[in-house]
Amino acid sequence: MPLLEVNELKTHFHTRNGIVRAVDGVSFSLEKGQTVGIVGESGSGKSVTCYSLLGLIPMPPGKIEGGSALFDSIDLLNCGEKKLREVRGKRISMIFQDPMTSLNPYLRIATQITEPLRLHMGMDKNRALKEAIKALGEVGIPEPDKRIQMYPHEFSGGMRQRVMIAMALITKPEILIADEPTTALDVTVQKQILDLIKERQQELGTAVIFITHDLAVISEVCDEINVMYAGNIVERAKADELFQKPLHAYTRALLKSIPAMHAKGEELYTIPGLPPDVSKLIRGCAFRPRNELGDPEQCLPNKPTLKDTGNGHWVQDCPGCLA
Amino acid sequence: MLRFIASRLLQGLFVLFALYTITFFLAKAMPGEPFTTEKNLSEESKAYQRALYGLDKPILHQYLIYPKNIITEGSLAVSTSKGRPVKDIISQSFKVSVVLGLSALGIAICIGVPIGVISAVRRNSWVDWGTMAVAMIGICVPAFTIGPLLQIFIAANLPGIKVAGWGNPQDILLPAITLGLSTAAYLARLTRGGMLEVLSQDFIRTAHAKGIPASKVITRHALRGGILPSVAFIGPAFAALISGSFIVETIFQVPGMGQHFVNAVISRDEFLLLGVALFFGFLIVIMNLAADILTGILDPRVRITDNSPK
Predict the structure, then answer these.
(1) Contact B210 A119 (CB under 8 A)
(2) Torsions phi, psi for A139 (to 5 deg)
(3) How far, rounded to the nearest angstrom, does the alpha carbon of residue B202 sit from its chain's CA centroid?
(4) Three-state secondary structure call for residue B232
(5) Computed over its alpha carbons, how large is the radius of gyration of chain B?
(6) Looking at beta carbons, which residues of chain B come within 8 Å of A107?
(7) If both were cysteines, with which of A96, B56, B128, B245 could A102 make a disulfide (CB 3.0 to 4.6 Å apart)?
(8) What is the tens place of the pLDDT at every residue in A100-140?
(9) Shortest CA distance to B176 belongs to which of B254, B291, B290, B263?
């Protein structure tokens, strides 16, 4: 039985401009210790998927319209705020895109990092502080006993992300959700942070859900990759398989547009058009208007479903996109 | 930190001197003189009075002698309309105004800040719209409307509460409410704005993701940043509250300092006018400094250390 099993998750936002179907029937699962990637353009629903799991969607306007997310026989989507709070930050924790704004500027690092320990583990102040200093040392912060008394603005971006990681992992959670953890960082720091996440993951046996729009990052860290488009998963495969044998036209277009795949001087490939407006009801295959590599003529007039093509490789069964 | 305070106090001195200069020449520009009264005083007795108060000297001399006396003797001269030292008049009435102002500020904070927090947390709900509408009314309705309304509906119906007067502890209540309500309304709006700003920040999401209960997210993570705009406002507002209000003092017959701001002008009592104006300026300078120090305590990013450039 998988550690986390998400089934037909639907999260919609009820706004003045209509219903935004940010996530519209997403299913995936996560095994213990595994790293699953979710990749997609901005607005494809990858972050909303994960926020929904932890009840971090602002409601209203957000609303979880349906689905289930089973984690240790708890349905995260329907278990109620109190029960969810015991899981959140203790057994499933999260790190965010921008470390510059994700830490509270008004509180010392010590206060912030010991908070989960005192809240979830019932530790007293001194023991929590000792644990926190140890945790900061483990993520590579020099002189952790001094640095812990500082404020976030006294740290660099990379160091802050290390603090975030230490804080997220301090309760030894079973799942870590990483929401574009390297997007806001310098390329040199990106690599360090990725290595750190991998290293900590191996030591603690944590499973990771890795959200990113950076294919280079995802190829490095993930065992399995979900490609999202317009609130749906269009393809899922083992990392190697996806890069070697992409089936869906969108995945193929994404891979084709990686700059490193081009010869020097060659014009970069870009996917024409824009992602569809998910506040309008999409009938049929969502990728049809931008489908260049497949055959848009053959795209389905109703919503395609995921089908297993064998070897754990799933793809939306749309003849136009598979062509 | 000490250097910061010292430099701010020095700046304050310049502010006070500018204030003195403007007030002095405006007072001199007023028509008439302190001894223009309905009784027809003889020229001789007017000349005698002028000489007594030093008003017969050249303007420039008068302009310089007043600050010199403040510095050398600590004297604020003698009120021409009351014949008593201005210092005594201020210290006597200021005691009353401080009690009233502190009560008003207490009421303003106890009402304004919680309302602001609640309406920010429940934004765009009926609670939010309702409290903000009331706050808007609180800002718009002047004290000379609220005061009499309180007198009619509360003082007239509750035994022990007098319509006006000063002497018993319970006499503070109505004038303090009247004085504090508009400040409470401002505080509610500022706190709401500050809280909305903070609650939309990423670190609030982080706090939720850590599994912290919503109430603690607000008190521990959001409130500190959320009340910063209010703190900046409270500094000068506090100075205004404790230096008295002519309207409230008149309505409730309170012997506070506010009356002197108006009466000194009417009686062309330039020494009393200068005294209260400078004293008010002094309070503003001190309270602004206090607000800045408090902001630094609340927000480590603007905290002043001696080795950082100011």
Answers:
(1) yes
(2) -95, 10
(3) 36
(4) helix
(5) 24
(6) 220-221, 224
(7) A96
(8) 888 888 888 888 889 888 888 888 888 888 888 988 888 88
(9) B254
Nearest to A103 among B203, B212, B220 (CB): B203
Task: Please tell me the predicted confidence (pLDDT) of residue B308.
Answer: 45
Rounded mean pLDDT of B95-102? 89
Test the A interface: residue of B208, B210, B212, B294 with most A CBs within 10 Å: B210
The percent of residues in chain B predicted with pLDDT above 70, rounded, is 97
The ipTM of this complex is: 0.84
Residue A88: list chain B partners with CB under 8 A: 208-211
Q: What is the mean pLDDT of residues A150-159?
A: 86
pLDDT recorded at residue A320: 77
Long-range contacts of B211-214 (CB under 8 A, 24+ apart): B211/A85, B211/A86, B211/A87, B211/A88, B211/A89, B211/A90, B211/A116, B211/A119, B211/A120, B212/A89, B212/A115, B212/A119, B213/A85
**CA nearest B203 in A: which residue?**
A102
Distance from CA of B111 to the nearest CA of A (A): 25
The whole-angstrom separation of Cα B286 and Cα B8 is: 9
For the residues A54-83, what does the mean pLDDT come to? 83
Return the pLDDT at B307: 46
- Is pLDDT of A90 > 90? no
Cis check for the bond before A296: say yes or no (omega within 30 of 0): no
Q: What's the confidence (pLDDT) of residue B194?
A: 92
Task: Please name the residue that has the structure tokens 């910061």.
Answer: B4
